[in-house]
Amino acid sequence: MTEYEYQVLTFDRHVPKAEARQTVREHAEYGRWELSRSVLYEGGVRRIWLRRRIMRVNRTV
Length: 61
Description:
By secondary structure, the chain is an alpha+beta fold. The protein is built from 1 helix and 3 strands; from the N terminus they run βαββ.
């Protein structure tokens, strides 16, 4: 079974859409995150859930 870790980014309504997109792009490129969910709330607050797979490494002797 695949396990994921999540990170939630919250952007105020005053943050431009392009800036939010750039932040998500940087997380995806350098942190290996992928977009899981995106919600735009009433009032303009944008919340974005990012996820990445947890890689378990088995110890070898």
